[in-house]
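Researcher: For the annotation table, I need structure tokens for Glutathione S-transferase 3, mitochondrial. Please keep the output clean. Sequence:
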Amino acid sequence: MATAIIIPRDYVYPVATVTSVFWLTTWQMIKVGRARKAANIPYPQVYADKAEAAASPQAQVFNCAQRAHQNTLENLPTVLFSTLILGLKHPVYAASLCGVWTVFRVFYTIGYSTGDPKKRNLFGSAAVNAFSTLGLLLGATYTAVKLVTDSL
């Protein structure tokens, strides 16, 4: 038995916000590259070691920028797939949550990239990111359950 999924016209909004996430990670990658160069941390070294970070403010900034980027990458599968799944039934809600997540991830990156890890919660970004991720996850779960139950 086949189940048809009709993509709503408003699905362009989740697609647009998912695309904005690609730009976010590209911007973060550039920030990390510049910080790596300023700190003179060679490849393939992922982070400056403790001694380097303690001796050089640029190395600490590199570590923080690298961590902000890596943390974003750790969250991407959940955010992207949840946005696209939730968008099948509730595209505006999905796009709104992903858009909020992306904007506050910018604030998170700016704060973290100062070299002071405590500033990563700029404008409450860590909490807003957590709540928007939870909203996406719950919405995607609801959508998946609805799709399954509708096909029975």
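Researcher: And a one-line annotation?
Model: The radius of gyration is 18 Å.
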